[in-house]
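Structural prep section.
Before we set up the soaks we want a predicted structure of the protein with tryptophan in place, mainly to decide which crystallisation condition to try first. Input record follows.
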Amino acid sequence: MRDGQAAQSAIRLADYRPPAFLVDQVTLDVDLRETGTRVSASLTLRRNPAPEAEQGDCVLDGVALTPERIAVNGEQLADDRWHYDGRHLTLRALPDQCTLDTVVTIAPETNTALEGLYVSKGMFCTQCEAEGFRRITFFPDRPDVLSRFVTTVRADKAAFPVLLSNGNPVARGDEGSDRHWVRWEDPFPKPCYLFALVAGDLACLDDVYRTGSGRDISLQIYAEPRDLNKLDHAMASLKAAMAWDEKTYGLEYDLDIYMIVAVSHFNMGAMENKGLNIFNTACVLAHPATTTDAGFQRVEAVVAHEYFHNWSGNRVTCRDWFQLSLKEGFTVFRDQTFSGDMNSATVKRVEDVDMLRAVQFAEDRGPMAHPVRPAEYQKIDNFYTVTIYEKGAELVRMQHELLGPEAFRRGTDLYFSRFDGQAVTTDDFVDCMEQAGGQDLSQFRRWYSQAGTPQLTVQDSYDGTTYTLTLKQSTPATPGQPEKLPLLVPVAMALLGADGQPLPLSADGQTETVLQLTEAQQQVSFEVPERPVPSLLRGFSAPVELNYDYSTEQLRFLLAHDTDGYCRWDAAQRLYHGAVQRLLDEPRQAEAEAAALVPALEQVLARAADDPAATALLLTIPGEVALADRLPVLDVDGVHEARAALVSALGRQLAAQWWVQVEANETSGPYRPAADDIGRRSLRHRALGYLAAAGDKQMADFLGDLCRNADNMTDELGALRLLCHYRLAGSEAALAAFAERWRDEALVMDQWFAVQASVPGAATLSRVEALLAHDDFDWRVPNRVRGLLGTFAGANPTALHAADGKGYELYTQCLARLDTVNPQVAARMANACARLPRLPVPRQTLLAQALEQLLAGTVSDNLREVLERILASRD
Ligand code: TRP
Ligand code: ZN
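Run finished without errors. Recording the tokens verbatim:
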């Protein structure tokens, strides 16, 4: 029965038809009140002339609205001409052209789902992507309806001095003695998911950016007055992103004003509303005292991401939500390249690949596996995934590599000029690349429709003169896609000689080539004077899993000599995976496994000063979740023990060298969030981590001092995390002092909750329970919920998977509670148990029972879709 229901509510790409009615103009009047907020809307409706468009009545979306007036061409509509069922407003026998006036009341003050119009710390704000606008007014809430918006915002003058919406302010005035209004006009037609409105008592950081063509753009970043000192980094990032997009893509900003607003209650990172971005405070506020290096880099990346959407997303938008990756994959590719250009391209690439392989490959292995362009969904909110975003970015990156930078740029120029002001598809994007590159990309397009991580298996042979590679590709079955076809897989490669230098691959002396694999199996040969070590999938040229049976010697060799930063890092990862794998069978061999790694790591450490950031990455052993994901059956405890033993042994065996790094990488002068200083801090903390794991007697004092005396949050939080993780003397006191110091800084307190939730072991369960009851825990604040529960469920396997099932009980009770407050966040958090089928019995049974019980209660559509998929994945 459940299956039947799920199938019924699925929305399919194959069913797409253009809308029956278009809306050319929207005039909104939003009268904000403590209760009884009233939205008046006037829509200029026109029947869609396209022959393939939907026919019949005009059906508008509208969720939880209280209609007060419905009028057509100024006349109140008779009761038998309209019907509202709480989700849709059906208007019968509407003229083909008319003006529809509606007045509704809504209740932003009780909206904890944070979709539509809601209140965050006394400020009104909106989140309309993907389907939030229907909670504000009646409208065809789909991205292929583009309209011009004029919005008047009215509110109490004292409580809400700042009134914002999209576009330019065109008029303002007072209304009686205590209220006022501002009217905004957005000249660019846009889908309603890009609508935004903000009203609050906000401080503003102002600046100006002069475009390449000499236009001055007013830049404004709004936040609570107390956070005004945390906006400089976002402003600098914004200006850098604007200049980068002009230089790299030839794209200039279009309006005269660009606004960003920081909001404490937010479901995701940030939102690219036209001219009025709304940001999670975690992605815009930055100050050395309260923000870590990772936080600074996140702000830079997210500010750029939302800015880049102004073209890739807003000027050219998505036809339907199956095309979500059209804007997200492309925009992630753009922000990744930007961050690489601003900092270190290699380090950024490795970080991105690490995340993709750990999280997206895991998604592909589980019940939520879906293509970059899905064929169906139930709740679109559940498809804002790493597959759509990060794998989508890899597909754009491959096209960039296949075409080369000049042809790619011709392709994007064509895309932006051909489709400006339109709602289009990922196929339209590839068409432009195909045309600009003069290449047939028909086989490449399968990447968009086929789910799963392709397996690339490589074998080699050498007969004294000819070196032959045999490459095989296959993609495992995923839910709903049993059969897979071969893809066009670009495989960048080089062959290294015994001296570590790349060998010429052809007569012209070229030492790197990109193989274009198109068949299920292919061979390629090179004439070389010695048996080489292959350097494969350089730069991670395709999002595949590479299976080549590297020997330990080959991996050490690549780690020492490869000039490709990704391949060096991958070689180190393979060495670590191998060691942990063997320790699962021989748990007492940790000292020996560490000893075998030491020579290679000594070589890495000897070159540490050349690139501390890259060195830190080379010295990072994969996390427990990533390690366990390699195993057919999740061995939660075994992986924890093996990894901990290896880290601890490496800590002891290289102790002197770790101390050298701790000394050598102390940064001097005031805190700077610049790439070189960030790299030094990350290497220093890596070294401290090894020393703490080794049980070094000085660490409790050393870390206690660092935590107390640090002048920046990177050092302070890094020290606190190690103190707690290894339960060192003084850790409880440090936690208490930290909370005392930072209790008024919400983003710092999120980290305080997260640190405690991440301490391995079942004992953390009672800590999590205690923290749920803490005065500062709040179910309505997604950042806080993610800090505590997201960390516990997503990054602490030995706590979540406690053998007696207590972790599952706690987790599902929390999901039930969270679901009543915020279904989007609850559904996202539920993905943590997507590994259900790979759990051994009895854990699998315990988790399944807990999930069944959760599903038997009242759950949102969002959470139901995720739970049903997970439970159905059990054989
Ligand atoms: N489009 C946003 C981005 O830049 C994503 C987003 C923000 C979002 N808020 C959301 C998606 C709420 C769904 C629901 O990636
Ligand atoms: Zn985005």
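Observations: Residues 345-365 form the longest helix (21 residues).
Flagged for discussion at group meeting.
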